[in-house]
UniProtKB/TrEMBL annotation:
Protein name per the record: DNA repair protein RadA
Gene Ontology molecular functions: ATP binding; ATP-dependent DNA damage sensor activity; damaged DNA binding; hydrolase activity; zinc ion binding
Alphabetized PANTHER family for the sequence: DNA REPAIR PROTEIN RADA, DNA REPAIR PROTEIN RADA-LIKE PROTEIN
Residues the record lists as binding ATP: G95, D96, P97, G98, I99, G100, K101, S102
GO terms under biological process: recombinational repair
A Pfam cross-reference name: ChlI
Motif RadA KNRFG motif, residue range(s) on this chain: 252-256
């Protein structure tokens, strides 16, 4: 049998190396490479002569009923899960420290328990007394949630196997340790082994397991990316410390639509659901001012209206600043280049600041036209009409390309009182609407019609 090979693994990104080094070549982090023994030795020469059992096969036409779902009563939480919690599913929840992950999951556990589901909350970061204090502050002290504080994976699985709850919440995966792995808690080996055991237990016992994961400085869930592939659903809890809004976003969901969002508001009594996020994001919008544009976007299956704010000012630096919050900085640089190359509007020597109001994060290309409108409005010191929304994708040639679900975007805008929309010329709108639609073919026409000749 071949001698087991010791590997050196980066604790920041999970990359493996043949020998130790002070700096990881994959992510550039210093002093993060740790020597680790392999999880399993495995056979030296294949599987041998022994045969396994035959796997049952079925046709694609085999009809199976949809999986049953347990609803918590928290509409926004159930929406992100795809309509409720599926028994035997594994869910990974990530977010910045202090963003409210434990608060959200404690409220969700209490909501499931109040509806007759047996819920167990295992905390590896806080003592039971601390979790009880949070429950009292949130008014959940009387909820029938079973609470435990443990980090040993073997003891946790033994307890869950004996109790057989409907839902188990593990907070967090970085604090667990398995006695079969010779590595510190939080290391790549421990996180991978703990996640594998929890997912296997969820599938075999039909228990829905919710796992909390820390995030890195880049905003990704810490540990190897294979953990995200193991689970059925990956949720990110987003938000800015200075804003009261929190976004629960599904980036992967085997039982529902991906990119679905749930909107919450942080209050003194915990997280409150926001039924109409568009009205909330636009609630602080005052009189029309230069540099402001309203974007009609789609998040998952729901339309959401957000305000994109821009500020353009003369720069005293050799390299002007480009500060972007809530948007893709690479996409913004591309739009600036298209405005200069195709429309003759330079931004050289100007500082550019862009922000999405309310702490929202917009990633879809349909926001290109709204970003360009906000930049041009700030540069020309000319405000867009207060009742105007816009959306559209900008190509490198300067043409405006249509986007999906234009009908739903306009319907949401009309519901909130907007009567004017600027959209790509080739957008397909079925039926007649009581809205003024300005169809624009390219970015040059947009600059000429909305802001004059530029």
């Amino acid at each position: 049998m071949a001698k087991p090979v010791t590997t050196f693994t980066c604790q920041e990104c999970g990359a493996t190396h043949k020998k130790w080094a002070g700096r990881c070549d994959a992510c550039g982090a210093w002093n993060t490479i740790v020597e680790e023994a392999p999880l399993s030795q495995g056979p030296g020469r294949g599987l041998g002569a022994a045969k396994g059992k035959t796997v049952p096969l079925s046709a694609l036409s085999t009809h199976e009923p949809p999986p049953p779902r347990a609803e918590s009563g928290m509409t926004e939480f159930d929406r992100v899960l795809g309509g409720g919690l599926v028994p035997g599913s594994a869910i990974l929840v990530g977010g910045d420290p202090g963003i409210g992950k434990s608060t959200l999951l404690l409220q969700a556990a209490a909501a499931f328990a109040n509806r007759g589901q047996q819920a167990i909350y295992i905390s590896g970061e806080e003592a039971s007394a601390q979790v009880r204090m949070r429950a009292q502050r949130l008014g959940l002290a009387e909820a029938p949630v079973r609470l435990g504080a443990e980090t040993a994976l073997r003891d946790i699985l033994t307890t869950l196997d004996a109790e057989r709850p409907d839902i188990a919440i593990i907070d967090s995966i970085q604090t667990l340790w398995s006695d079969t792995v010779e590595a510190a808690p939080g290391s790549v080996s421990q996180v991978r082994a703990s996640a594998h055991e929890l997912v296997t237990f969820a599938k075999k016992r039909g228990v829905a397991v919710v796992i909390v994961g820390h995030v890195t400085k880049e905003g990704q869930i810490a540990g190897p990316r294979v953990v995200e592939h193991m689970v059925d659903t990956v949720l990110y809890f987003e938000g800015e410390r200075g804003h009261q809004f929190r976004i629960l976003r599904a980036v992967k969901n085997r039982f529902g639509p991906a990119d679905e969002i749930g909107v919450f508001e942080m209050t003194g009594g915990g997280l409150a659901e926001v039924a109409n996020p568009s009205a909330l994001f636009l609630s602080e919008r005052g009189q029309p001012s230069p540099g402001s544009a309203v974007f009609a976007g789609i998040e998952g299956t729901r339309p959401v209206l957000t305000e994109i704010q821009a500020l353009v000012a003369p720069s005293t630096l050799a390299s002007p600043r480009r500060t972007v919050v809530g948007l893709d900085s690479g996409r913004v640089s591309t739009i600036l280049a298209v405005l200069e190359a195709r429309c003759g509007i330079p931004f050289a020597g100007l500082d550019v600041f862009l922000n999405v109001a309310g702490g929202m994060r917009v990633q879809e290309p349909a926001a290109d036209l709204a970003i360009a409108a906000a930049l041009l409005s700030a540069r020309e010191d000319s405000a867009l009409p207060a009742d105007c929304v816009t959306f559209g994708e900008i190509s490198l040639s300067g043409a405006l390309r249509p986007v999906a679900q234009a009908e739903n975007r306009l319907k949401e805008a009309q519901k909130l009182g907007f009567s004017h929309a600027i959209i790509p010329a080739s957008s397909k709108i079925e039926g007649s609407r009581d809205m003024r639609l300005d169809r624009i073919a390219d970015l040059t026409s947009f600059v000429g019609e909305v802001f004059g000749a530029g």
